[in-house]
Structure formats: structure tokens, C-alpha cells
Amino acid sequence: MAPAPYVVPIVDSTAIFKDDIFKGKVLFCTGGGSGICRGMTEAMMRHGANAVILGRKFDRLTQTAKELSQATGRECLPVQVDVREPATLKEAVAKTIAKFGRIDYVICGAAGNFLVPIQNMSENAFKTVMEIDTIGSFNTVKATLAHVRASKGAYIHVSATLHYSGTPFQAHVSAAKAGVDALSAVLAVEEGPNGVRSNVIAPGPIANTEGMDRLSPKGDEYKLPGYPAGRMGVVGDIANATVFLFSDAAAYITGQVLPVDGGSMHLQGSL
Ligand code: HXC
């Protein structure tokens, strides 16, 4: 008998948390136009926050902002930036303050990825991902920090689990995400006395996201070794971790990396 088709489960996003825990707060999220960061933003808005989503594709951002506002009843401002260009982030922060007057939470999520072995990777390909992921995160922190200090807010950096071992064809992303993890740790230590927290979420294989589709074309996930948690991750899993880490329930958690991967990083040969 043929095995039953694999169905990615829907995890009800963040319903376990109170509705209004982020009421009056403002989220600033790079990469929020799609994928995991869109899900993180939606979760924060469902719990009361207004949001600014940032990225290079303005049309997509505008559409996403409309959909998120309709779904949550909160305001969402789309702003075009290239995180490699500090001036665009500074301008985006000015627009955020003009509209909402504050920034409480920042998600550094903008990232680039593609599969290529070191032998074939151009210097510019490596540099491009370092610039988007690592330098882009630094630029985002620089542009927002004064406001996050003022609100005694918090950062979440979206990293990965693939650099905790040697993942083939991912030299650029592995180096870049290791830098992101380090940046967050230093930010936590330097800014803790100012009331600012900084943590990393390291997603494992998350179904129906651009990153996963690029690394493992649809269908190939069936061929990966069994998942310790019995299933792939879904965006709702990352959203739940986001709400927890930004909430007061995590007030004493800073400088940490939280893998949200169902235990996959401990499985030999996994993503
Ligand atoms: C080899 C490639 C390539 C590919 C680009 N390059 N794509 N090399 N294979 N598939 C090279 C180009 O040839 C060029 O080098 C250099 O990279 C820059 O490419 P550009 O297209 O000029 O840059 P840009 O327009 O700035 O785009 C950057 C980008 C981006 C990184 C390619 O468009 C991108 O990847 N977007 C995808 C977003 C994404 O995947 N987000 C999810 C991330 S998930 P040369 O030498 O030719 O000039 C994630 C976590 C993964 O990060 C963990 C999952 C488990």
C-alpha cells in the first residue's frame, strides 16, 4: 500500500497568548514582505502591535501591508529599503517615527540565499549575502537603536541552524548567520543595562517559505530524514517563538539563540 501523502500541518498561530499584549507598541521588521518575517509580523499585529515592514520590493510590501491590516485590524506601513544602504534605513526610521512616534521591537530578517559550492561561488556572491544578512542586520540595529533604547524594547535576529555544522553549498549564508548570532550577543551585553534585549531565532526547515523552496525544491522535503518532532516546521511555529521572546514572559532572556527546528539540528544529515 502506498504511504499516505505528507501533509504540512497548520499550527494555529499564537492563539495561546493574550490578544492585546503588544497594544500601543510598534514593530519594525526587515524582510516582512514575505515568508517567515511576514508571519512574525502578523503574529505581533494580532496581539496589538502596529508594524512597519521593509524590503526591496515595494509592490509586494504594499500588498502584504494591506493584507496584514485587513487580517488583524492594526496599521501596517510598507517602506522600501535596501538593508545594504544605511541611508534608506535611516529614512525608514524617520517615516516610522513620523507615523507611529516610537519603535519597540525590531526584527532583523532580510536575507538572501541560494545553493552553490565554494568552488563555483563568485567573490561577489559571497559578499552579497554577507552584506544583506550580516551588514544589513548591523545597519538595521544602528538605525533603530536610539528608539529601541527609548522604549526599552527588544531585537530578534532571524538566523538559521545550518551553520552549527558544515552545510554544503551554504558557505556564504553560514558565515553570514554566524556573524548575525555574534552581533546579537554583543548587542545584548552592551545594551542590557539600557533595558534593551536581543535574541536570535534560528528556524529549521520551515514549510512553504522561499528559503526552504530554494534549498529543497518542493517535494524533496519528503526525502529528508525523519523529523525528530514528527513533522516539518511551519511559519506559526516561528510566530509563537516571536511572541514569546518579545513578551514580558521573556524579560530575563537576552543574548540567546533559540533554535525552532523540532530538534532537526541534532539529526545527522539534516538541514
Ligand atoms: C550562484 C548567484 C546566484 C545563484 C546570485 N548569485 N544568485 N550565484 N547561484 N543562484 C550571484 C550573482 O551571480 C552575483 O555574483 C551575486 O550573487 C549577486 O547577485 P545579484 O542578483 O546581482 O544580487 P542582488 O540582486 O542584490 O540579489 C541578491 C540575492 C537575492 C541574494 C541573489 O536576490 C536573493 O537571494 N533573494 C532571495 C531571498 C531569499 O531567499 N530569502 C530567504 C532567505 S532564507 P556575480 O559574481 O555574478 O556578480 C535564509 C535561511 C535559510 O537565508 C535557512 C533555511 C533552512
UniProtKB/TrEMBL annotation:
Its EC number is 1.3.1.124. Keywords: NADP, Oxidoreductase. GO terms for cellular component: peroxisome. GO terms for biological process: fatty acid catabolic process. It holds the Pfam family adh_short_C2. One of its GO terms (molecular function) is 2,4-dienoyl-CoA reductase (NADPH) activity. The keyword NADP applies. It catalyses: a (2E,4E)-dienoyl-CoA + NADPH + H(+) = a 4,5-saturated-(3E)-enoyl-CoA + NADP(+); a (2E,4Z)-dienoyl-CoA + NADPH + H(+) = a 4,5-saturated-(3E)-enoyl-CoA + NADP(+). It comes from the Eukaryota. This is 2,4-dienoyl-CoA reductase [(3E)-enoyl-CoA-producing]. It comes from Cyclocybe aegerita.
